[in-house]
Amino acid sequence: MHVHAFTPTAATLASAALLVTGLLTTPATAEPAGNGATSATSATSATSATNAIRTNQLGYLPDGPKRATVVSPSAGPLNWQLRNASGTVVASGSTTVRGTDTASRDTTQLADFSSYTGTGPGYTLAAGGLTSHPFDIKTGPQLYGGLRSDAMSFFYQQRSGIPIEASLAGAAYARPAGHLGVAPNKGDTNVPCQAGVCDYSRDVRGGWYDAGDHGKYVVNGGISAWLLVNSFERARRAGTDAALGDSTLRVPERGNSVPDVLDEARWELDFLMRMQVPEGKPLAGTAFHKMHDAAWTALPTRPGQDAQQRELHRPSTAATLNLAAAAAQCARVFAPYDAAFAARCLDSARRAWTAARANPGLLAPDSDGTGGGAYSDATVSDEFYWAASELYATTGQAAYRDAVTSSPWHTSADALSSFGFGWADTAALGRLTLATVPTGLPAADTARLRTSVTTAADGHLATMSGQGYATPLPASGYVWGSNGQVANNAIVMAVAHGLTGQQRYRAGTLESLDYLLGRNTLGQSYISGYGEQASRNQHHRFWAHQFDASLPNPPAGSLAGGPNAALQDPVAQERLSGCAPAACYIDDIGSYSTNEVAVNWNAPLAWLTQFAAE
Ligand code: 9MR
Ligand code: 9MR
Question: What does pTM read for this prediction?
């Protein structure tokens, strides 16, 4: 748990009167490779958005909500028309005036064409003399099936320690394996600790690179693996897991009789277990917090070309509990497919739990951010709750149940707050598991946990209804990785839908995808490859086309971190000063605080697109 309430800076407050409707980027102008700290686009081209009818640029479901935001100074409602591909008006109505939206400072109106249930390509919505980008209305598998597959391929392409094959990723994305000890890599096969942390080396190959960097961090890897496995566990409950089964994704393990989404998660789970301190060593059973380069590498750097020394950082209680939670979930979900692997996961989870209980105060410091992210976390009671919940759901054992029921997080209203869950805030994950997986908890207690999920989902719906773009974030919620937070909150609503069958929760989930796919103040689809105006220059050391024209842009299905009002990188500071919170985003490779990709953001995207594709 860490505090992430956003405090407006003096700059954002002073410029509150400025009417910044949006900031678009110009197409990439390739310049010589830089160090990533500067913008690759030289012009300061902050132009306003080209289109003021904001829709989901991918499209809508015939039986789902279909809403658009119209930005208009008009004080009264406007008439809208929905046209099909041949230009025929198939539905019409009038907008609802919404007034000024705090997060974007836009004056918005709502056009709701949900009652139209036809299907087809190339619809447009017109209002107030403006016309939207064209969009499709298609069924779930048709509309979201491709994005689900691409959002999962992101994980394959982030894999460390294995070559990325053209046959699976496409020729532009193929690359040699990274960090297997082939020069100039120092390799993750024999990694020493930082000075003073341990006197031995470990083989910590594999796993996914965290983001645009080549670090591998247990807390962020664990929550991401958990989300992929959870997406499968949820689908199995709903009876829709066939779509995630064997040979459904572009992974090398196709055809091994194990669902492909689990194959992908296992690539990370194997790595997480390698990060556990071995028996016989000090702090045995705990997990090293992270491993990464001794110093930041420049952009671009292909994984196999990273020449930096890799180092293990000191074990932390948070990482240990994150491993315990993810490995306990692994034991439960993998059991029908690979009993031996499930048993190995359970053994690792139990040892991690015991070690965390014995070492509850190993806190990862904020200062450890050279060459990799800090992922600091000063409060681990929520990680204890999450790990206990997973171990209890898997084993049914009394000791874990007691740890669940005696935790303050079992009853705290903060477990599912408006900020939701994240790599440092994991109590909600325990709640989601206990609310959905059958356990021996008293029925009344399970019912109370389920109500806590639906109450949280209703809170997100209330937040959305107060926003011009139906975003499940308060105006203060535009922090680093805000798009990941949107996606995580959408998962809470999807789980509430699963628990109750109520359509309003499904609508909230789908409208959250609308936001990510273009229904926002910038008219920006934050998912590469999807939408007329989609992010394409996310911060990444290999998908660094903006810095080196011979390298690819991020592959389709890569979610950008999103608007971050705190402007925490030099490009954002130079280009976005005065931005409204929801507009503090720039599609520039240098803006790592608004435009990086990360496993903990693509994991909820994969989860949600699986839900939407059903
Ligand atoms: O590239 C790094 C990115 O992955 C991280 O999220 C970010 C914050 O930890 O840091 C980036 O690295 C920059 C470093 O912090 C400062 N010097 C320039 C680095 C490359 O942009
Ligand atoms: O997602 C992380 C965000 O919550 C933090 O505020 C930020 C700064 O510490 O770091 C983010 O994580 C980055 C990590 O530190 C390094 N790899 C890239 C991650 C995404 O930007």
Answer: 0.93
